[in-house]
């Protein structure tokens, strides 16, 4: 407990993460999308701290002079001792202050700091781990900065309270240093996933049913991550408030990190609401047409299915074959294919797997298909222009139009040549790229084992795209968000998913999704909605069911979705989109407010007028779930849907 009274009504907030203005993974999305609501609350009293990446910083940060004498003096002192940094505004919505440290400028102190870390916190650090070395350098720079600036502010008449919020183990080294050095700061540490949990789940272990039995030190040692685990555990134990992103990760952290989290801080998104419901449905139709153009090229020569009776499913994320549930998705697709063929369904399902793998180049056959269909499209357009002009001129003269005279023999020959070029004897490829050592690729091997080769009679077609999407892609020239909007269903049957941004992003865009009760998002939705499936959130039970039962449940959910009429899908998308308010940072950000208030009261309790400890801030209590919709199953009023876009959905 600090001895000097602080201004707890106007505290300073520093938020520290490895992915500040430095996109590596999902935490970048968390920090970036949360910034506007935090700036709205704190204004210029909010500053983000991260490592300086000379590759991304020039495009992401506008350099500025430090706005306060305390900040300027602190940075000038560090600069005089050889530490390089960049202060400015992050060029995102909200434009928060950002401070980036060049860890390379402190490499001369690495051995000294590693020795100090062992002496102060008992944390070992092997020499060959570059990532850990970077985390140590960053942690010591952050604790140095925070210690100096807190001391300078403490000299003021009414010094502000200081909160430092750390995300993940890479930013966690500073937390035990702040505690051991008695730096006058309130700390919050959030783990977005545990190191050991991710490693254990990637192996073939029954993780969740054996959590309490793992020898954590032994398991971390066997996987060569003991020193990283020590940093993560020290941060969890030395912070004033310990939080995770979901209830499932809180349960995991309690057993692996040996501290029960004080609360849960779910991840949110910036939700853009459309003024009219049909707007996002129109965006779906436009994006779906772009995907359909790709499908026409990819399946040339075997384009034997009706795109009006075709559904686009997808899964996406890091290439973690078991953790992301790709193994379950592919197996369920094989069972879905069998069931659709058995009932002779007219519906075709095209399933995309979007995950970055080790590739050499685009597959020639995949590029050839797009080139041939593009040439055909251009030829048809030219013939249309010539035929249209001929019909117009003939009609102007008042002559009757003979069908055989509409197209010239040259146009007929040209069209036949383009059509014959589309014939092929090989099957449409199941992968769009040339994969390095594809015989060792788990997705490719499973597709081969299950004979998912895009045979003409298959009702489920598979396309593995081992690269993230972008608008410059010569095959699927769409950004990820645009691609998601064009799909009908996202499938994310993850085994290890502390939160799950991919299904959350689907929800905000009005795209139904399948998740699991082992993902933070799935558990959150189960707690928030009376009947999730009616709102387009399908949840696979991977906790209490066997693997085979879970696969059958997933196949059943996809089968039921494939049986829906077009109007039922429209109705369900409307309901899904209405859930987006649940995921808005304006709502989710309130949990961050609670965490910061709890940290302030624990550290600066004497500075508050009341005796309230705030320990009950995170109590969930009995909250009301969103009830079942009035129409079950989805069957909207026919007059409520515009026919002008219904035909494209």
Automatic annotation (TrEMBL):
Pathway: Glycan biosynthesis; glycogen biosynthesis. Keywords: Glycogen biosynthesis, Glycosyltransferase, Transferase. One of its GO terms (biological process) is glycogen biosynthetic process. One of its GO terms (molecular function) is alpha-1,4-glucan glucosyltransferase (UDP-glucose donor) activity. SUPFAM superfamilies: UDP-Glycosyltransferase/glycogen phosphorylase (SSF53756). Glycogen synthase participates in the glycogen biosynthetic process along with glycogenin and glycogen branching enzyme. Extends the primer composed of a few glucose units formed by glycogenin by adding new glucose units to it. In this context, glycogen synthase transfers the glycosyl residue from UDP-Glc to the non-reducing end of alpha-1,4-glucan. Transfers the glycosyl residue from UDP-Glc to the non-reducing end of alpha-1,4-glucan. Its EC number is 2.4.1.11. The keyword Plastid does not apply. Residues 640-649 have a biased composition (Acidic residues). It comes from the Eukaryota. It catalyses: [(1->4)-alpha-D-glucosyl](n) + UDP-alpha-D-glucose = [(1->4)-alpha-D-glucosyl](n+1) + UDP + H(+). This is Glycogen [starch] synthase. Belongs to the glycosyltransferase 3 family.
């Amino acid at each position: 407990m600090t001895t000097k009274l602080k201004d707890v009504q106007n505290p300073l907030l520093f938020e520290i993460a490895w992915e500040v203005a430095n996109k590596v993974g999902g935490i970048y999305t968390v920090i970036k999308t949360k910034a506007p609501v935090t700036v709205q609350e704190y204004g210029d009293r909010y500053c983000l701290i991260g490592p300086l990446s000379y590759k991304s910083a020039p495009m992401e940060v506008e350099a500025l002079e430090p706005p306060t004498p305390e900040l300027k003096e602190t940075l000038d002192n560090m600069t005089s001792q050889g530490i390089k940094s960049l202060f400015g505004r992050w060029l995102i919505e909200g434009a928060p202050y950002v401070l980036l440290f060049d860890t390379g400028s402190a490499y001369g102190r690495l051995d000294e700091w590693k020795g100090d870390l062992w002496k102060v916190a008992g944390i070992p650090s092997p020499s060959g781990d570059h990532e850990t070395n970077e985390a140590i350098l960053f942690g010591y720079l952050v604790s140095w900065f925070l210690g100096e600036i807190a001391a300078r502010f403490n000299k003021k008449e009414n010094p502000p309270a200081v909160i430092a919020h750390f995300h993940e183990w890479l930013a966690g080294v500073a937390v035990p240093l702040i505690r051991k050095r008695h730096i006058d700061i309130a700390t919050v540490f959030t783990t977005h996933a545990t190191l050991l949990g991710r490693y254990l789940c990637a192996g073939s272990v029954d993780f969740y049913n054996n959590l309490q039995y793992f020898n954590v030190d032994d398991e971390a040692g066997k996987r060569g991550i003991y020193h990283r685990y020590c940093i993560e555990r020290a941060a969890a134990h030395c912070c004033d408030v310990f939080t995770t992103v979901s209830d499932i990760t809180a349960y995991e952290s309690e057993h692996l990190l040996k501290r029960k989290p004080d609360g849960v801080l779910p991840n949110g998104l910036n939700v853009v609401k459309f003024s009219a419901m049909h707007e996002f449905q129109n965006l779906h139709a436009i994006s779906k047409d772009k995907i359909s153009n790709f499908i026409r090229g990819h399946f040339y020569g075997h384009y034997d299915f009706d795109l009006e009776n075709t559904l686009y499913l997808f899964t996406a994320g890091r290439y973690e074959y078991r953790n992301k549930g790709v193994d379950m998705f592919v197996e369920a697709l094989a069972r879905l294919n069998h069931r659709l063929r058995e009932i002779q369904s007219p519906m075709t399902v095209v399933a995309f797997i979007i995950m970055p793998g080790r590739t050499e180049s685009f597959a020639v056959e995949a590029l050839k298909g797009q080139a041939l269909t593009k040439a055909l499209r251009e030829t048809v357009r030219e013939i249309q222009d010539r035929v249209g002009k001929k019909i117009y001129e003939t009609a102007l003269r008042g002559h009757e139009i003979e069908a055989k005279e509409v197209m010239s023999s040259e146009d007929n020959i040209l069209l036949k040549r383009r059509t014959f070029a589309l014939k092929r004897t090989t099957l449409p490829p199941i992968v769009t790229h040339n994969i390095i050592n594809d015989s060792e690729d788990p997705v490719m091997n499973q597709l081969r084992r299950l004979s998912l080769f895009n045979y003409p009679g298959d009702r489920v077609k598979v396309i593995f795209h081992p690269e993230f999407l972008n608008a410059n892609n010569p095959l699927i020239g769409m950004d990820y968000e645009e691609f998601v909007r064009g799909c009908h269903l996202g499938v994310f049957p993850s085994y290890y998913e502390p939160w799950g941004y991919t299904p959350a992003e689907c929800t905000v865009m009005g795209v139904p999704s399948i998740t699991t009760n082992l993902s933070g998002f799935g558990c959150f939705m189960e707690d928030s909605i009376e009947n999730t499936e009616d709102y387009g959130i399908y949840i696979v039970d991977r906790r209490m069911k066997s693997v085979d039962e879970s696969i059958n449940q997933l196949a059943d959910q996809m089968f039921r979705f494939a049986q829906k009429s077009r109007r039922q899908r429209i109705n369900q998308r409307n309901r899904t989109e209405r859930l987006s308010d649940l995921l808005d940072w304006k709502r989710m950000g309130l949990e961050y407010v609670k965490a910061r208030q709890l940290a302030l009261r624990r550290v600066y309790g004497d500075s508050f007028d009341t005796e309230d400890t705030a320990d009950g801030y995170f109590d969930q209590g009995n909250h009301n779930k969103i009830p079942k919709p009035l129409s079950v199953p989805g069957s909207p009023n026919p007059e409520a849907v515009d026919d002008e876009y219904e035909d494209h959905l």
